[in-house]
Amino acid sequence: MIFSARLALGLGLTTALMTTAAPVKQQSNAKMKAATSAASTLAQGIISKYPMANGLLPAPYWSWISAGMHNTLTHYSHYTNDTQYDSQVAAGIQAQAGPGDFSGPNIPGNDDQLWWGLSAMTQAEFDPSPDDWLPLAKNVFSTVVARWQKTGSCANKLGGIGWQIDPSNPNGGYHYMNAITNGLAFQLAARLARYTGEQYYVDQANKIFEWSWAVGIIDNKNYAVYDGTHAPDCSTMDPTQWSYNNAVYLYGAAIMLDHTGNAKWQTHLDGFIAATQRQFAPNNILTEHCDVDDSCNTDQSTFKAYLARWLGQTAALVPSTQDRLMPILQASADAAKQGKFEGKGDAGAEMSKLEITQAVLATSRPLPRRMGA
Q1: Are 252 and 183 in contact (CB under 8 A)?
Q2: What dotted CATH number matches 4-364?
């Protein structure tokens, strides 16, 4: 994944089955219809403007952005009941999976592979044939977590997953322990735990989160999430804050709270929400620090898409958060209608507009399913 570090160098079990939508606050019918119509227009524009041959957006978009786009369109189908793009989305994900579970030459980073793993996980949670996707998500997690750095990483806080897969990569990314890679692994573990009910994934999610907390990627005082740190000593932290780093841990915490009921996850979730409100939603409008001077690059223009996606899903999954999250999502959706998130008009901006627009529908739709539901 290309983000600030890459630029500098050259991310108790419950037994209930799936709960159908049971939100505290549903949107009015008029607002839902308006959001659905606006989302339909945006989705149609994306599909017509950005053909994804073999599951990939055209240059200059990296593979992980294509994974994010497939996730966006899967959620679009779920939120609007418009299934016309489903076969195209499924075929694109399968094309990129190939025989090696998303390990082709266009997947240089652990984060890249994890983004595709989340695409498969989302299909498992929402697709009519979910179990076809579960092995892909499981295999991605197993492959990536096997790269947990057991020696020479972060002094007495051994562990973490490096950004890049290849230790010989000349940009040094193998030794960059970044928020998005570890956050994606945490979230995938949490979602696998909730979906399968297997304790193994609960343990893995706890391990990854606790390492992120111990090494300081997650600020223990204010829940800011910093971009990353360099092994072997991890003595300095890149303090850059990006919304998707915060959001990936936030939704993972929401999943763990829903699945385990452990009060510590409520504390963590509340902390991440407060950090989001403070850093990325002043005046209830989603923002990135690069928006101030319109300097967001191709990657950074996608970040608000993931933030909106995971805030919407959190509001649906943990209804007690709706008083804090729905005003942000509704104000941002209203701003999108007024042209607030046009950016440079690239695929990232279009994806962000669609996610921001459709996130307000999340509380009115069925929750992600569990195995057997």
Answers
A1: yes
A2: 1.50.10.20
